Amino acid sequence: MVKIGLKISRVGIIGTAPHRFLDITLVSEVENLRYFHFSSDNEAFQALLDVGLAWDDFTRKFSGRRFSWDTFYRNYASYLRPEKKLIDILPTEMLRVVTHEISKSDMVWVGDNDFDSSFVFATLLGILGIPYVLTFKETRIYPNEFEFFALENAERIIVPHDGYLELLRKKYNKDFSEKIEYADVDWRSKVVYDFLEKQKVRKLSEMDNKFHVCILSGRVIWDKNETRSRGRYYYVDIIEELLRAGFTVHLHTKALIKSVNEPIFEKDNPYFKLKQRYQNSFFIEEPINLLKPEGYLELMKYDLGLLTSGAATEDPEFMEFEQYNIPNRYYEYLMAGVIPIAPEGTLKYMEKITTTSSFSNIVKRFVIN
Asked: Domain of life here (predicted)?
């Protein structure tokens, strides 16, 4: 049973689609949500405030302050080990915030998609004896001592689906089922979804009778042999395959670089060569700003949205995680009424739970939902 008058301290990244935290304040049992956000999230935090102004419950229940945990983690990450006393190297003011502000709530909520330092912060909470709830999603197949400590000491663990129980059993030889809850930290706001459902946006396909595929990626690379990102950002081959199949492709990105290790830009790269060959069907465009709900209106004009490049199939570690992964773009596309697609065999859990749409005969191996 949820406590009436629940006060929540949230520590972590706001990230894309900050409105996903709006719905928490609309739950009647929640009295207050205080968000301890990082300096890198200033824009997202302001966007969350702007969106929330339309709801009295949000303005009454929500508050926040900047918390420099991300800076501390970047500066000291190489020195951190669970057996060392984090308290000894933690700045006094940061320790005061943890013990006198964050802990003064009914629930401390930590953990993010793509936020490794949340496990270190959870370790700190465990050392201090402060109970916490852990959101768990992005991980690796090899054990990590901070991750295990965070899981072991959490009061509750929130995971996207039951496949994570199998993953954690294989990884740590331990059953966490007694404290598991199911929800995805990447779920988007229901109230924003309701807003978008009322909007009338004309699909590009209605104008030219061609299927338009959207690719959302903060960065893309053209060095196929790059190992750091394990092929996640290499889209050259799948874009060309889509273009040859007759689709129109729109690549929305803010960084087009050689590799993560060599973040250089060269105009004579494979993406621009594809653009020259397919001038009327391949477009490299500015990123879509999804910090505010209005950004989804641009996304709504597309028919299909690509979830993954499919270029990492030869990396066993990455593909092991992909068996369980639900990319956050999946929810962006659903919000906008765009059909998510991916190369067959890359997102096995999603293939298992979704049904092939009526586009199957046209999109062939790309459609998974």
From this structure: Bacteria
